[in-house]
Amino acid sequence: MKLEKIVKIKILNIGIPVAISYFLIFISTFFFNKILMPFGNEVIAGFGAAYRLQTIVLLVSISFGNTLGLIMNQNMGGNNAERAFQVYKKGLINIVGIYIIIGMVIFLGRDLIASFLIADGEVSAHTENYLQIVALSYSIMGPMMSSLLVLEQIGKGLRAFFLNFLYFFLIVVVGWLLTTIYQVESLFYWTISLVNTFAIIGIFYSYVVIKNNFKMKKT
Q1: Rounded Cα gap, residues 56 and 61, in angstroms
Q2: 59: burial class by Cβ within 10 Å (0-12, 13-18, 19+)?
Q3: Tell me: the pLDDT tens digits for 72-106?
Q4: pTM (predicted TM-score)
Q5: 94-101 own/partner pairs: CB under 8 Å, 24+ apart
């Protein structure tokens, strides 16, 4: 196969799904704010501060996911599929451990963190409320993000995009329905937390896809 064709295939399988996934994240933020808009500026500001913190928290998983993908591809380049899969397994275990600690620290220190992020007491209370509900679910959300990045790195970008789309679709639809019916903004936060928790299914799915991929490569 010609080099030009290989490059084009890589762009289609990796580059385009990754670009669409980041665009999806941007669009979802717009819908999140629309869901919370009826509850006032204080709620939107408090959520915004908490969500920015969450973005920083997820940078860790993005860094680990990209690093895992690079190391795995290096091993694949050396025709060592078994070692590449072992790198993924051990890396995922470490990421889970790191995010359990991160989630616990944010949950236990949510009051201080919210006060540091927002000076206004009323707005800070909304930030603290979000962190109280969502922080512990980071222990699953972080590893899930890393797994999606590994899928993208090994050419399974369309599957990663589908999982990303399903994640944000559930949050937007279920969150909008619950807050519209019951008029309680916390139900939106609980929706995010529960979808993060059920994302463990996505981690297992990614694990199976990656395992089968490297079995084929090994064969």
Answers
A1: 10
A2: exposed
A3: 878 876 677 788 888 889 999 999 999 999 999 99
A4: 0.89
A5: 94/64, 95/61, 95/64, 95/142, 95/143, 95/146, 96/139, 96/142, 96/143, 98/60, 98/64, 98/142, 99/60, 99/61, 99/138, 99/139, 99/140, 99/141, 99/142, 99/143, 100/139
